[in-house]
Amino acid sequence: xxxxxxxxxxxxxxxxxxxxxxxxxxxxxxxxxxxxxxxxxxxxxxxxxxxxxxxxxxxxxxxxxxxxxxxxxxxxxxxxxxxxxxxxxxxxxxxxxxxxxxxxxxxxxxxxxxxxxxxxxxxxxxxxxxxxxxxxxxxxxxxxxxxxxxxxxxxxxxxxxxxxxxxxxxxxxxxxxxxxxxxxxxxxxxxxxxxxxxxxxxxxxxxxxxxxxxxxxxxxxxxxxxxxxxxxxxxxxxxxxxxxxxxxxxxxxxxxxxxxxxxxxxxxxxxxxxxxxxxxxxxxxxxxxxxxxxxxxxxxxxxxxxxxxxxxxxxxxxxxxxxxxxxxxxxxxxxxxxxxxxxxxxxxxxxxxxxxxxxxxxxxxxxxxx
Length: 370
Known about the structure:
14 helices, 3-stranded antiparallel sheet, 8 strands
């Protein structure tokens, strides 16, 4: 019987054996960074029909219990890791910033992370993609880039026989369409009302009143929070944003203190003390809270809200840019990096003192008409 390519085959071994029928598969060995096709035997049977039955179950991702250790077909998440390792081994390896965006795009496929790729249907991929169609073309483009690369890699390694990504539809927000919307005054009031009643509302408020990027707050270590001086050190993405001073609004000092008193390495963690990745926070904590609060927002909307509130109260533009980690020019007209503990020690933070930044951030209102 001729079996499909990449399916594996049954080999009858010579000699007088109790289980002469062996199931043999082909796989790609990446141990030295160079893909090499190899074969291995994964199970032995006394009867050819039993061997064929096992091979069918193996290819369906439903390997019988006693042979689970041979279930080498990767899940979506495992395939992503394999594809990343392969892609990074090539001379045309994308830049670190691109990999960061790819990891964010990978998080948007969270509903199928644990599914075997041979059991994933195009409709399931499409559901994940369609759920993000309000995002920018760049974001959706990254989703397309990784899933198409993954399936090409899967075909090359004979994990699957066909590319189910070819007919997927990748729709994004039209150019000029706002992809972020601020929390309304009524919504911010509702968040303050729900504080200490609904879990993790404090995280959203910390985001709103610091203006930090979604991934930045999650990377703040407790050792970099200076509660008495009312600031913390953190930030990423740009030279202006890295390791900057983030002043703390008086209203969120108790919220930060509550997180700090849990005595964990990172300021923001889950209830077990584990560090959040951006994808996990977005797909579990944030989305769950938004659903419970009956709000429709993306994590970046908190940063957008900070900027909107700052404009609303007439915050000094330089203070706003420093707090948010945006690049700005110094008196000579050249760009400079904002942030760093050295400036705070000298009580000078670029062209604004820490006290001036605290005064600026405390302009943000905490009372709204709900």
